[in-house]
């Protein structure tokens, strides 16, 4: 899949007419497929763009930043696929200047069936299917840490949340996943280190933050948040805590047990410390509080930009998130 010249022009036209506060009311309407901390995923309702998912990142100030990010992203994709052995859906890039003169970067993928995405699948998989899903996610994550262990120069980080995986070939009428391959979806945060140096500029993660919070986020949170994606134990804690976020708290105990069983068995050589339900619960409560406050402050920042400063606010914020 690659974008044609016509599709690129349509995407640019969409960006020119985008209403970040109400994307569905844009000149070319869009349907939100998902939100991330630094990006939003759309289905753009225009003839010629059907069946595609567009992940939008309005983080950049200059095209030189876009160029560096794209090189880092391409290398991250190569590391995940060629070195670690993960499956990724094919994707393309598109970058151009927005009407206000700053760049926007789009990652474009084929739109996947909603029921195949891990957090959606949780709500129609039987108990054994949920266990199989967790187990297969852990097997994919193990590939990353096996690569990290094979050599010392490069370290790959990854966000293992269940919403970042697609179950290829899942039949919603017969939801069994044993033997079905998983694809990893979240490449927009290309975390890897070479000789201990982060290859993506961590400051990009702060671009969407309110200016009055940037210094405290940089001082107190940025390093810890980035570091946790290089720690298999903490990635697994986040995976288990996902069941709270996805309104399946009754599955947390099972997830903790399955993860510990995996660490004792198939991943025993990695020496990963086991999880506890209390650890997962505490992690989730703290994480949910932080992100709830962060989203509230971003909404305040949006109001300041639009009403007081009379400036654009390029980020698209979710409504109330149920946690």
Molecular structure report:
With 323 residues, the protein is of the alpha+beta class. It folds into two domains: 5-110, Phosphorylase Kinase, domain 1 (2-Layer Sandwich), CATH 3.30.200; 114-201 and 224-297, no CATH class. Helices cover 41% and strands 14% of the residues. The chain has helices spanning 5-16, 63-83, 118-121, 127-150, 214-220, 222-227, 232-245, 252-264, 277-308; strands spanning 30-35, 40-44, 52-57, 91-97, 103-110, 154-156, 165-167, 182-184, 192-194, 197-198. A hairpin with a 4-residue loop joins strand 1 and strand 2 (40-44). The mean pLDDT is 91.
Could you outline the blueprint of secondary structure elements for this entry?
Layout: H1 5-16, E1 30-35, E2 40-44, E3 52-57, H2 63-83, E4 91-97, E5 103-110, H3 118-121, H4 127-150, E6 154-156, E7 165-167, E8 182-184, E9 192-194, E10 197-198, H5 214-220, H6 222-227, H7 232-245, H8 252-264, H9 277-308
Antiparallel strand pairs: 1-2, 2-3, 3-5, 4-5, 6-9, 7-8, 9-10
Helix pairs in contact: 4-8, 7-8, 7-9
């Amino acid at each position: 899949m690659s974008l044609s010249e016509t599709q690129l022009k349509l995407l640019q036209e969409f960006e020119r007419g985008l209403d970040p506060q109400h994307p569905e009311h844009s000149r070319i309407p869009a349907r939100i497929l998902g939100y991330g901390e630094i990006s939003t995923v759309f289905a753009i309702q225009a003839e010629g763009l059907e069946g595609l998912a567009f992940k939008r990142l309005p983080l950049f100030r200059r095209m030189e930043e876009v160029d560096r990010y794209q090189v880092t992203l391409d290398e991250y994709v190569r590391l995940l696929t060629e070195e670690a052995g993960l499956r990724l859906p094919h994707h393309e890039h598109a970058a151009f200047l927005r009407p206000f003169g700053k760049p926007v970067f789009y990652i474009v993928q084929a739109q996947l069936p909603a029921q195949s995405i891990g957090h959606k699948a949780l709500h129609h998989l039987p108990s054994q299917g949920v266990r199989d899903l967790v187990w297969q996610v852990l097997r994919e994550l193990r590939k990353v840490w096996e690569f990290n262990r094979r050599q010392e120069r490069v370290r790959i980080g990854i966000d293992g949340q269940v919403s970042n995986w697609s179950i290829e070939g899942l039949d919603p009428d017969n939801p069994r996943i044993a033997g079905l391959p998983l694809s990893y979806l979240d490449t927009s945060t290309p975390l890897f280190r070479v000789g201990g140096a982060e290859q993506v500029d961590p400051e990009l993660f702060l671009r969407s933050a309110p200016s009055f919070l940037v210094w405290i986020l940089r001082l107190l949170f940025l390093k810890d948040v980035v570091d946790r994606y290089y720690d298999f134990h903490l990635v697994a804690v986040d995976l288990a805590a996902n069941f709270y976020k996805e309104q399946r708290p009754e599955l947390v105990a099972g997830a903790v047990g399955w993860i510990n069983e995996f660490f004792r068995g198939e991943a025993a050589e990695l020496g990963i410390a086991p999880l506890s339900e209390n650890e997962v619960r505490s992690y989730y409560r703290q994480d949910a509080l932080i992100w709830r406050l962060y989203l509230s402050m971003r909404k305040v920042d949006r109001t300041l930009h639009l009403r007081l400063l009379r400036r654009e606010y390029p980020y698209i914020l979710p409504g109330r998130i149920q946690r």
